[in-house]
Amino acid sequence: MKNLFGYSRVLAVGDIHGMHEKLIMLMDKIRFAPEEDLLVFLGDYIDRGPDSVKCLQYVHDLQLQSPDSVVCLMGNHEVMMSSYLMEKRVSYNTLIGDYSESWLENGGFRTLQQLNELDMDKKEGLLSWVTDLPVKFRYQEFFFCHAGIDPDVPLPAQSEFDMLWRRRQWWEQYSGEEIIVVGHTPVQKVRKKTRSAKPLFLPNRVMMCDTGAYMAGGRLSCVDVLSRKVWQA
């Protein structure tokens, strides 16, 4: 049953990074219902793990099937791939700089091999879809983006660079009213003493959902931002 937010669940999935088996396991646990749920993927579908193109194709197809219930955000790895493969700067031309040249060194080589195994139409279709992905999404009091924000800048004025790339412990400085939901920085690097692979719900209204799916001992996580229930694979 839908609540006063408009959805029974608002689900945020952290960085997938080519972990297709974990993605399928997670989606089986979630039991996503497009007529009731809102599903937000936080970016970085590719690189690091073994099955980047399978993951990219999966989220692409899911969004096509349920365009009103599935939001796919851009991650910094998608920016690097788009820049490298399409030589197309779109709205990210001021952000990419030399990052596009480092894509192969950051897991892109295997992704490139897999893309080149596709027929040309399917490859071009995926790349065209990727370059048009949004950088942010707002729903009620929730602000979703891949990486983070500048805590000294109002949310409407956030730069695409910060939303795609920022680390620098911004999550310790945020003091706004909206709830910020992000991936990008594995929680294992935030809580270095425990190395726990569980999403973080910080007291200053920040939710961190990247639980290092490709890392040793890491998991792929989904958070219902309304109830804070967590599913993992």
Automatic annotation (TrEMBL):
One Gene Ontology molecular-function label: phosphatase activity
Signal sequence region: none
InterPro entries from the UniProt entry: Ap4A_hydrolase (IPR050126), Calcineurin-like_PHP (IPR004843), Metallo-depent_PP-like (IPR029052), Ser/Thr-sp_prot-phosphatase (IPR006186)
SUPFAM superfamilies xref list: Metallo-dependent phosphatases
Matches recorded under CDD domains: MPP_PPP_family (cd00144)
Serine/threonine specific protein phosphatases domain mapped to chain residues: 1-231
GO annotation terms (biological process): RNA decapping
GO cellular component terms, A-Z: cytoplasm
Origin superkingdom: Bacteria
Protein name per the record: Serine/threonine protein phosphatase 1
Source organism of this protein record: Succiniclasticum ruminis DSM 9236
Lineage: Bacteria, Bacillati, Bacillota, Negativicutes, Acidaminococcales
